[in-house]
Amino acid sequence: MKVIKNSQIFEVPNKNARDADAKKIISTISDIKFNENQDLFGKKYLCICSGGTTSSCSKKDLVTLDLRKNYNNIKFNQENGIVSIGGGVLMGNLLDELEKYGRLFPTGLSNLPGVGFILTGGISPLSRRYGLAIDNIQYVKGYLGNGKYFSISKNKIKKEEIDIWEAIKGAAPFFSIITEIGLKTFKSFPILVCEGFVNENELMKLINIAESFPPNLSLQWMFADKIYVYVVGELKTADDKIITQDLLASLNKFKSLETKIFSNFNKVRFFPRALNLFELSQTNHSEVISLLGGNIGNNSHKLIQTIQGINKVRPNNSCYIAAQQLGCKTELEQGHDSYFVHRDSIWKPWLYTSWKKDDLFERELAINWLIESWNKLKWFFPNIHLAQLHNHLNIHNEEIDLAFARKLNKLKLLKNIYDPEGNLPPL
Ligand SMILES: Cc1cc2nc3c(=O)[nH]c(=O)nc-3n(C[C@H](O)[C@H](O)[C@H](O)COP(=O)(O)OP(=O)(O)OC[C@H]3O[C@@H](n4cnc5c(N)ncnc54)[C@H](O)[C@@H]3O)c2cc1C
């Protein structure tokens, strides 16, 4: 097995993971000896890296399986519209490949995430029309934590495979390593984006307007020093165009919003530089927690006041809160159930906190701010979208409870059956 020192070449977008000094980086499944793993892992578990955008893809003294090098194939089947991708494919590369065929997959707000985006649910600005990423999985191949290979196809699913199939959709990282996924794709249409800075009153109004949006429209907002919004609309049908014209007329009063039309979803870029969000700062480490909740309705004023209170005590300017909108298609399970249990969610806010790396005092302030802000937001957004694993933080158990709720016991049972040695991240 090739031994690589993390700090030498393990380049990942997440800076906590880049600086973690993993015990080893391995790049193929055959490097893992599942049943004699004590010498490889010690008593510890294996980290999996796909896009490398979370702090859990590599950790001090743990082995990382980096899927990006050997599991990065993308193959589009023009006959059935299904794209098959390796477990280490980045969402940006997926969109680039699909664009060649005039197709799209509903990816999120960034090109950086890998297959972790899909396995943890996958919320896109287009999800209200096309569902979550997990809703569009056609087949999966991979290894269970006990080393057993599996291949499950939605159309030929056997009774004994249903439990694994369901849990892969939202909870895969706890008991499996996914090496290949087949995804349903969609024909691409132009995308309208209405974006710009707004003030608190305007954000309140926009949230209220957005809660009556049809499936082709969604609102996302980012609230740091200033507030930036993106209304995203797909222009597919004649109705879409009429609805969008009406919307634009009603947005006329928001003077700083600018409307642009992109030829397809892959051309849209989120996270404006002008907001200075520090996502890519080389010297900062960070954590993110993602929440879920229903319509805000008459409580938008209360929400804005709560966020203002949260922002007033930000430990530094890097910290922010943002949100994306779900609903319509995401409210329904497609076929078999999934482990994205909060289907009634309409908003997914996330809190981003950051600190100067190696500054333990600043880290504590930043993590405390994250937890206290989460507590303040629970009234509006009581549930969790487990897009990041935080088993290194003491909020982990509460997050797991709130993410899997009524399915947590079943998930624990599946973990005991399929990953009895605890080779994969702990629940
Ligand atoms: C800039 C940015 C924008 C984002 N926007 C959105 C958004 O719009 N919508 C949304 O829903 N989320 C969004 N996210 C969250 C992101 O999708 C999740 O955090 C996701 O888990 C990241 O996956 P990754 O592969 O990039 O990360 P990694 O750190 O490589 O993986 C995260 C964890 O997922 C598991 N995992 C990854 N791949 C596999 C695999 N093949 N088999 C088994 N387990 C695996 C592993 O446990 C791994 O530790 C965003 C994140 C960032 C950084």
Give a brief rundown of this model.
By secondary structure, this protein is an alpha+beta fold. Helix content is 27%, strand content 24%. It has 13 helices and 18 strands.
Structural account:
There is one protein chain. The chain is α+β, with helices and mostly antiparallel strands and about 425 residues long. The chain has three domains: about 5-65; about 75-185, Uridine Diphospho-n-acetylenolpyruvylglucosamine Reductase, domain 3, CATH 3.30.465; about 190-405, Vanillyl-alcohol Oxidase, Chain A, domain 3 (3-Layer(aba) Sandwich), CATH 3.40.462.20. Helix content is about 25%, strand content about 25%. The chain has 13 helices and 18 strands. The chain has an eight-stranded antiparallel β-sheet. A hairpin with a 4-residue loop joins strand 7 (about 135-145) and strand 8. It is globular, with a radius of gyration of 21 Å. The chain binds flavin-adenine dinucleotide (FAD). Flavin-adenine dinucleotide (FAD) binds near residues 49 and 115.
